[in-house]
Amino acid sequence: MTKIVILTGAGISAESGMGTFRDEGGLWAQMRIEDVATPEGFARDPALVHDFYNKRRAAAARALPNAAHEALARLQREWPGEVVIVTQNVDALHEKGGATGVIHMHGELARALCALCGNRWDAPEVMVVGERCPQCGGPTARPDVVWFGEMPYRMDEIYTHLAEATVFASIGTSGQVYPAAAFVMEAAEAGAHTVELNLEPSAVVSDFAETRFGKATEVVPAWVE
Ligand SMILES: CC(C)NC(=O)[C@H](Cc1c[nH]c2ccccc12)NC(=O)[C@H](CCCC/N=C(/NCCC(=O)O)S[C@H]1O[C@H](COP(=O)(O)OP(=O)(O)OC[C@H]2O[C@@H](n3cnc4c(N)ncnc43)[C@H](O)[C@@H]2O)[C@@H](O)[C@H]1O)NC(=O)OCc1ccccc1
């Protein structure tokens, strides 16, 4: 039975009011990656990093899923075969849209991580410098997101899914960040049909067999139908 593996990025949440990274006025236009999305940046200025993620956590808590999130959840429910969603997004809009078993390869805003003992727990809306781990008590709590230079989560599972994919779709991502940007090659090597759905061609558009350009809330429901 056909197995569909779907990779999503910030573009699928753009129409839900979640900023993207690289677009006009995107997150990286306001903040330097080095300062807020690296372990070194957190060590240097934890207050700046907590402020950056506290704001995004508050926005994500208010955000609602859009027609693209809902279409993927419907596909998961109605497709006779397996549909696996791997997201680079740290918001919970796929789950709010009804999707299940979503693999958050770059972590989740709604979770906190202890840098000392590795414990994870539901993050308070506002994390403060020196936030304590409820398990080891260390003042070592950080947002449970994957920063640059850190290993993304659940990579073994992801590579297994890619090797079994018969269809690989990439939605709302610029294809500039690895290892996610290389997933299309992994899937293509496994014989999958590959399709890019995005507002504009990504940095790896030439690796895809099919492309559909437009807003996620339009091209994703049309692709699912
Ligand atoms: C900048 C880049 C060159 N650097 C990297 O890729 C680095 C280094 C690197 C590793 N391998 C390499 C190989 C070559 C070069 C560099 C590297 N990668 C890492 O450090 C990664 C860790 C990277 C993760 C960093 N954390 C993020 N996020 C979490 C935090 C947070 O969220 O704050 S990355 C962050 O940016 C990434 C890209 O963002 P997108 O989601 O694509 O968003 P963007 O704004 O860029 O694009 C939006 C797109 O949507 C479209 N769009 C907009 N609106 C709409 C709309 N309405 N509808 C449809 N589409 C739309 C736009 O046209 C656009 O195309 C996402 O992954 C996102 O999670 N770790 C790692 O490699 O560990 C070792 C390893 C190696 C191999 C195998 C295993 C381990």
Automatic annotation (TrEMBL):
Write out the residues that bind substrate. Answer: 53, 56
| Catalytic reactions of this protein | N(6)-succinyl-L-lysyl-[protein] + NAD(+) + H2O = 2''-O-succinyl-ADP-D-ribose + nicotinamide + L-lysyl-[protein]; N(6)-acetyl-L-lysyl-[protein] + NAD(+) + H2O = 2''-O-acetyl-ADP-D-ribose + nicotinamide + L-lysyl-[protein]
Q: Where does Zn(2+) bind?
A: 114, 117, 133, 136
Among the GO molecular function terms of this UniProt record, one is: protein-malonyllysine demalonylase activity
Give UniProt keywords alphabetically: Cytoplasm, Metal-binding, NAD, Transferase, Zinc
Q: Which PROSITE patterns match?
A: SIRTUIN (PS50305)
Where does the Deacetylase sirtuin-type domain start and stop, copy by copy? Answer: 1-225
Q: Where does NAD(+) bind?
A: 88-91, 172-174, 198-200, 216
- Localization, UniProt: Cytoplasm
Keyword set includes Cytoplasm: yes
- State its Enzyme Commission number(s): 2.3.1.286
GO CC terms of this entry: cytoplasm
Q: Which domain of life is it from?
A: Bacteria
Active-site residues per Swiss-Prot or TrEMBL entry: 106
Q: Which cofactor does it need?
A: Zn(2+)
Q: Which HAMAP family match?
A: Sirtuin_ClassIII
Name the family: Belongs to the sirtuin family. Class III subfamily.
Role of this protein: NAD-dependent lysine deacetylase and desuccinylase that specifically removes acetyl and succinyl groups on target proteins. Modulates the activities of several proteins which are inactive in their acylated form.
The record's domain comment reads: 2 residues (Tyr-53 and Arg-56) present in a large hydrophobic pocket are probably involved in substrate specificity. They are important for desuccinylation activity, but dispensable for deacetylation activity.
PANTHER family in UniProt:
NAD-DEPENDENT PROTEIN DEACYLASE (PTHR11085:SF4), NAD-DEPENDENT PROTEIN DEACYLASE SIRTUIN-5, MITOCHONDRIAL-RELATED (PTHR11085)
Recorded protein name is NAD-dependent protein deacylase
The organism's lineage is:
Bacteria, Pseudomonadati, Pseudomonadota, Alphaproteobacteria, Rhodobacterales
Q: Which gene encodes it?
A: cobB
